[in-house]
Design goal:
The chain is α+β, with helices and mostly antiparallel strands. Helix content is 47%, strand content 17%. It has three domains: 88 residues, no CATH class; 54 residues, bsu07140 like domains (CRO Repressor, 2-Layer Sandwich); 58 residues, CRO Repressor.
Length: 224
C-alpha cells in the first residue's frame, strides 16, 4: 500500500510541476513552443517518469528537482528576453525563404527545405503557387508566415526590444546603430531604456516606437 501511495504522490507532484513550468513559460499555444521550450517539458517529464518507479526517490527528491528546474527555466526565459545574441543562439531566428518574390536558396538549404516541402507549407496557408508569394518567413516554431503578391506588404522589422538594439536586424535592413539613434532623437527618444519596442516600416519609411510609459502594468480580468 505504501508503494502505491508513493507512486501517486510523485505523479501528483510531477503533474503540478509540469503545470507550473508551462505557466512560467507563459500562455503559449503548443504550436508556438520553440524547440527549447519542448526540451524543458520533455526533460522534466523524464525526471518525473524515472522518479515514479524508483523506490529510492521520494516525494521530496521530486519536489527539489522540480523547484531547481523551475528556477533554471525562469532564469533562461528572462535572459532570452534581454539578450539578443543569447536568444538567437538558443531559440534561433526567423528565416526568410522568399523575399520580394525571390527564392532564398541559402535559407532553404540552411533549414533543410526542398521545393516540395515549401509548396506543402504554402498550401497549408491557402497559397497554391510559389509564383504568388511575395514573402515567406519560416518562424522559430516551424510555422510559415506568407504574404502574397496581391497583398504586397513588406513585414516590419523589429529594431529594439525591451531597450536592446537588435543589431542583426539592422544589418539585414542595411542600416546601422548611428542611423537608428539619429532617427530616434528626431522623434524625441534619446533614452533606449524607455523603449519597449521599435519597428521599422520600410514601405512608409517610418519608425513605430512604443514606450514603457504607454504600456499597461496590471492584470486585467475578463468577465464571462
Amino acid at each position: 500500500m505504501e508503494m502505491y501511495i508513493g507512486i501517486a504522490s510523485k505523479l501528483i507532484i510531477g503533474a503540478i510541476g509540469i503545470f507550473i513550468l508551462l505557466r512560467i513559460m507563459g500562455k503559449k499555444a503548443m504550436s508556438e513552443l520553440t524547440p527549447f521550450d519542448l526540451i524543458y517539458i520533455l526533460l522534466l517529464g523524464a525526471v518525473v517518469e524515472e522518479a515514479v518507479y524508483d523506490d529510492k526517490v521520494n516525494v521530496l527528491h521530486v519536489l527539489f528537482a522540480i523547484i531547481l528546474w523551475g528556477i533554471f527555466v525562469f532564469v533562461i526565459e528572462k535572459s532570452l528576453q534581454r539578450t539578443e545574441k543569447f536568444s538567437s543562439f538558443i531559440e534561433g531566428e526567423p528565416a526568410i525563404l522568399i523575399e520580394k518574390g525571390q527564392l532564398n536558396i541559402k535559407e532553404l538549404d540552411a533549414n533543410y527545405f526542398d521545393i516540395e516541402q515549401l509548396r506543402s507549407m504554402l498550401r497549408q496557408n491557402e497559397v497554391y503557387s510559389i509564383a504568388d508569394v511575395y514573402y515567406a518567413i519560416l518562424e522559430v516554431n516551424g510555422s510559415l508566415t506568407v504574404v502574397t503578391k496581391d497583398q504586397a506588404v513588406i513585414p516590419s522589422a523589429l529594431l529594439i526590444e525591451f531597450g536592446s538594439i537588435q543589431m542583426n536586424t539592422l544589418v539585414y535592413i542595411d542600416k546601422d546603430e548611428s542611423w537608428l539613434r539619429t532617427k530616434l532623437v528626431e522623434l524625441g527618444h534619446d533614452n533606449l531604456e524607455e523603449i519597449v519596442y521599435c519597428e521599422w516600416l520600410e514601405t512608409d519609411n517610418q519608425l513605430i516606437v512604443e514606450l514603457y510609459s504607454n504600456t499597461i502594468r496590471k492584470k486585467i480580468y475578463i468577465d464571462d
